[in-house]
Amino acid sequence: MENEPKSVIGRRGSYAKGVARRQEILDRAIEVFAERGADGTSLRRIAEAIGVSHATLLHYFDSREQLLVAVYEHAESLRQAPEDLEQSSVDVMVAAATENVGVPGMVQLYSTLVATAIEEPAGESKEFFTRRFERVRTDMAQRLRDEQAAGTVRDDIDAETLATMLIALSDGVQTQWLLDPSIDLRDTLSRATALIAAR
Amino acid sequence: MENEPKSVIGRRGSYAKGVARRQEILDRAIEVFAERGADGTSLRRIAEAIGVSHATLLHYFDSREQLLVAVYEHAESLRQAPEDLEQSSVDVMVAAATENVGVPGMVQLYSTLVATAIEEPAGESKEFFTRRFERVRTDMAQRLRDEQAAGTVRDDIDAETLATMLIALSDGVQTQWLLDPSIDLRDTLSRATALIAAR
DNA sequence: GTCTATACGAAGATAGAC
DNA sequence: GTCTATCTTCGTATAGAC
């Protein structure tokens, strides 16, 4: 029974030691980001923190960008499954955002990678975030469709558009919150419930 | 009569030739971004496109980051004054976003600088965007307050919070649109009118 | 004041030794 | 699998020409 890496990103290291090493890199990297901020995201800094050379990191990941995407994906996968069927669309959004800002460096990493994704015509980031937005939007839209059918959410705007708006709202408020922590992230995002409520 | 630079950013170049050169740099830089994408944002690339040495750029701007902020500020200042008093808050947001995405490289530059702003504890970007969000939020909130008083916008959410939400929405949708141009930016943002309408 | 030449250190990436 | 050495590009700093 093989222990296949879950991600499409960085397929190397399928053997036991390689897999362990790969996990160690991902686990440590997010900590380095949290501790050292932007200065801790270079290959050499991360490698130093782990105790290997920067060339070793490139043995497991094709590029710095690929490593960063894998780190984000890994950190995101560690979060609790958001799929309480009882939770409303806005509740899911608020929960995700709250967990996000609770991990130091997470919003910064997200923001950096999204910026890279929209800058580069064809890079690891672009592919990852295009797929991610598609997936998150689809999930959110389905939830909203159910709520529209149940009569709790307004149906004068289609679910896909509402999903796009809620995700944009969440991303944007997280950014503003980092620049002005006096903003009440949870409260602000929760107000979306009133905005999308059935009339 | 001195011809003082309008911005706090990059105060050098008060003499005739210097002022002209500085304008040329700002004008050309945004074009280079549009033409060459992320690969065109290095000092050496920009300098090459303008026909000067990269050291010259640092004569007018203290750092690459400061140059990039100045370029963004300059490009933004070229836009038509958004202050038609007849326009609604959402109309202003939609107009600004539409003009934004109409300038190639603009959203990418914005995104890159915001990412830098939230990464660096104390940098040019952080100061600029903290102030900018504050200003844009205040302007938008005032507009919303007027609309609440006029009875066209719901007043169960305070104007400051609504302003934060509208700005977040605009930023977020622009990002998603770059990764998936099938999203109708104008239509999606315009739907906000219904969301914040008085009940 | 304007601008170039040059040097330094850090960065991502690659090649090849072990 | 991991290292060192090396290449190239980058931001930045300085010295000095005009």
From TrEMBL, chains A, B:
<dbReference type="InterPro" id="IPR001647">
    <property type="entry name" value="HTH_TetR"/>
</dbReference>
<dbReference type="InterPro" id="IPR036271">
    <property type="entry name" value="Tet_transcr_reg_TetR-rel_C_sf"/>
</dbReference>
<dbReference type="GO" id="GO:0003700">
    <property type="term" value="F:DNA-binding transcription factor activity"/>
</dbReference>
<dbReference type="InterPro" id="IPR009057">
    <property type="entry name" value="Homeodomain-like_sf"/>
</dbReference>
<dbReference type="GO" id="GO:0000976">
    <property type="term" value="F:transcription cis-regulatory region binding"/>
</dbReference>
<keyword id="KW-0805">Transcription regulation</keyword>
<feature type="DNA-binding region" description="H-T-H motif">
    <location>
        <begin position="42"/>
        <end position="61"/>
    </location>
</feature>
<dbReference type="InterPro" id="IPR050109">
    <property type="entry name" value="HTH-type_TetR-like_transc_reg"/>
</dbReference>
<dbReference type="Pfam" id="PF00440">
    <property type="entry name" value="TetR_N"/>
</dbReference>
<keyword id="KW-0678">Repressor</keyword>
<protein>
    <submittedName>
        <fullName>TetR/AcrR family transcriptional regulator</fullName>
    </submittedName>
</protein>
<dbReference type="Pfam" id="PF13977">
    <property type="entry name" value="TetR_C_6"/>
</dbReference>
<dbReference type="InterPro" id="IPR039538">
    <property type="entry name" value="BetI_C"/>
</dbReference>
<keyword id="KW-0238">DNA-binding</keyword>
<keyword id="KW-0804">Transcription</keyword>
<feature type="domain" description="HTH tetR-type">
    <location>
        <begin position="19"/>
        <end position="79"/>
    </location>
</feature>
